[in-house]
Amino acid sequence: MSKPDKETKPPCFVELAGIKDLARLACAIERAPLPVFAIESEREIVLSVQFDLFMGRPIFYYTKSKERKAHLGYRNLYGTEEALLTDSANNPTFVYAPIIAIKKMPAPFEKALYSGQEIKDKFLSMEVSDLPSLAKISSYKMIFEEPPIPLYAFETNKKWVAGAFARIDDYEEASLFFFVRLDAAPESFLKYSMQKTDGTSFTNKIEEHGYAFIKVIKLANKHPMVDL
To answer: Rounded distance, CA 115 to CA 112, Å?
Structure first.
């Protein structure tokens, strides 16, 4: 049975650790790079990507920048990551996400970005036993030839958490945050092999054959819509 249409709620803006995390989210392991929205005010330039939706609330992941260009470029070569803002997308070793300049946002969007008000809608959380379990949740969409679900990592109570937002049925309201606790900050990708039970680990390199690679996006703070 289909559910009635709902009004879109004001968005949630989640700050990332830096420009590399935004570039990795928009460009790495995607069929096509995701558009980046540049929101310019007197105070700053905010670069953001919309990646999730929960209970009618769009979730944008963002970082601050001192400049705005036409493209956000990203590449990972032998474990070395580069992210750059550029007006020309002419280097074939980079993946380029288009940057869309926003002149004016709706008032609820501006309030959500600058007010810092608490969001009452929260994802329910489910702690899994180990990294292979988390990797299975994140990579199940690869069966449908879709990229793995990103992992979001943040520090809370002096411990790191990494987790993925996954739906347990066809409705966004049924999404859960599946997570593991870590002793230290993770690297940029989680590698996973269905053939090797001991092959799941964090890495910065994505050239190894026989593995699926899941991007890890570090947040500046605890995710405001996650209740552990």
So the answer is: 6
